[in-house]
Specification:
The complex is a heterodimer of chains A (125) and B (92). By secondary structure, chain A is mostly helical. Chain A is built from four helices and no strands. The chains are: A mainly alpha (125), B mainly alpha (92).
């Protein structure tokens, strides 16, 4: 079963869009000045490029088999769960290493060294 | 496969390859370790997208499973490396 021309055109448009976004993400990672700026461009690849490719796969396989082929969707689900976790861990690691190295322009820690813990049990009066 | 789709697939594969090279430059240059982890994560995701596009190109479902595995192991690896940078150990 051959797909109509507009299906192919839609898949081609989605693929080209994802390629452009992936290029933009890599260019940003290469060109931006410090790590905290460089953390942002990969989100273009993780969200826009991945969504476009997955939608292209869904449209292509649905048109090729004549039935709705939604299994590629799980890649979007997986990415949207895992990407914030890695971004948070990397940001915490960069903050920690920057403080250990004595960088001056970092935000202060939420809980300074030596301060009582926020959830510490209260002393009985 | 129509010539339009074939051309788009070729362009996308070339764009991914170029993007991986740019990220590889950041990985080799990266002044700090977290820069290298970030670039490696980006390369991993681009490789996963590459597998998906190849699946469209050859109309095969096998590439989809490979892409799923690459995404999963990429997350595990990046989380382990970030945890190592943060704490000096992976599993405490």
């Amino acid at each position: 079963m051959t797909a109509p021309w507009w299906i192919d055109a839609l898949v081609a448009l989605l693929l080209v869009t994802s390629g452009v976004f992936a290029l933009a993400a890599a260019w940003g990672v290469l060109r931006l000045k410090n790590f905290y700026q460089r953390m942002h461009p990969p989100a273009l690849a993780f969200v826009w490029a991945a969504w476009c490719v997955t939608l292209a796969a869904i449209v292509h396989f649905s048109a090729a088999t004549g039935a709705l082929a939604l299994h590629s969707w799980i890649i979007i689900v997986l990415l949207s769960i895992t990407t914030p976790v890695t971004a948070m861990l990397l940001a915490r690691a960069a903050l920690f290493r920057g403080r250990e190295a004595g960088q001056r322009d970092l935000p202060p820690p939420l809980q300074p060294h030596g301060a009582p813990a926020l959830l510490a049990p209260k002393e009985p009066h | 496969m129509s010539p339009l789709l074939s051309l788009a697939v070729t362009f996308t594969l070339c764009a991914y390859g170029l993007a991986m090279l740019l990220a590889l430059a950041r990985l080799l240059r990266g002044p700090s370790a977290q820069d290298r982890v970030l670039a490696l994560d980006l390369i991993n995701i681009l490789g996963m997208l590459l597998a998906l596009v190849l699946g469209i190109r050859y109309s095969s479902d096998t590439y989809f499973e490979a892409a799923l595995l690459i995404a999963l192991f990429g997350f595990v690896g990046t989380a382990a490396m970030a945890k190592f940078l943060l704490r000096g150990e992976v599993i405490e």
